[in-house]
């Protein structure tokens, strides 16, 4: 037993003996369960028959680790626990233990599954917290390089720490109902990434992580402007030319028929006006009566620049360029190679689109997109963050970015797409990056826009599906797991599940995580604040823990009505 930190078969921790064996569960006699209260052995609490307790079943080569999921009295003993019972009969409770994993007694390593089923009569012991800790923390990563995540609920002095590869290497999902503690968990992960010298980008949907003021954390804001010159906050832009054509269609909402193709042509013309300066007149491509060939040849020559995001154009000229696009496709007779005269029907049809464009360009809520002058561009800030070894976490606050015209969803998706593009270039292979997305249900499994110009918010879903091979992983935090696509949740290698009350949410998590079966899921609705179940491909079993308190908790408290009213 030299491979284990303590003996798993301590006679002082004896619970009972196996009386029934099934493939996945065993029944155990619990002679000490009727005793009131709990005892302590060597400073650790000993429960001896409480539902949720971890137990160890003795074996010759392996110790089988299980969890007590049910206790009951046989029908004949049901009344023996009543104080009015006249006889001195002793109750004989029986417990059902779910078999979780096995531990090699020689090496101390945990095994997937249970190689040898327990036998009737084998002794069962309450699992020492250090044994459970060793099983969960399997690996050679030094303690100083692990993420100090949590403690055992009934042994608060026993820390549960996981390696970054275990917790973040295959993506991670932090799930839980409002008030369960998922924001604190996310704040703790940010602090641990800073301590370990990692790199992470935090998308703060509500601004509650402004309390993270550790050295190495950079705070920036998308949307909004400084109140005055003394405002220390950094407000960024995500320039409109970094958006895809689909993104712009969602924001500008052209109708089908005339408006959509004219908007598409106008965007192409404005890009040509910047690429070939001599072709434009006052920043516009004039088309009425002008030859088509030079423009069409330029479109062929610069086709790649026209199709990809990042090619600059002057969006302030967009409505005027749409007006220029409203011409007949060709002139008559000798003018057949030229564009025709203005088409009044198309001009009339595009009038509402032009008015909408002017209105949105002037909207203060969309300044970070359409009026980037005077604001730092986010791509440049990300590049500086990646290049600076002293910067550990980049917090991008979206609290001032409006939901108007789906701007928040579109911009967050565009930033995610930008990060995935960097990952595909191999930028993160030497220094892995973690993208932490709070309120993930706002940005996943959604299609924005109207019925004629819909686009899918799939950037973070693609990061979950293919980012790992490029050293870009994600942490998704949400209180609505049912709104996260099943194919995205199934990519999560680790789950930190706080209290989940909604049955649909529990079913979704149970399906996405094969190690969280129905018996373990029944504990989710009764978890306390800050408690969670850690389960995943790198964890040999579902583990209930109490998440460590972050040094600087997020500002997620509600208004103090009692003191502010009256």
UniProtKB/TrEMBL annotation:
Region (Disordered): 546-566
SUPFAM superfamilies attached to this UniProt entry: P-loop containing nucleoside triphosphate hydrolases
The Helicase HerA central domain, residue ranges: 155-269
Gene3D superfamilies according to UniProt: P-loop containing nucleotide triphosphate hydrolases
GO MF annotation: an example: DNA binding
Xref: InterPro entries: HerA-like, HerA_C, HerA_central, P-loop_NTPase
Protein name, UniProt field: ATPase
Species the sequence originates in: Malikia spinosa
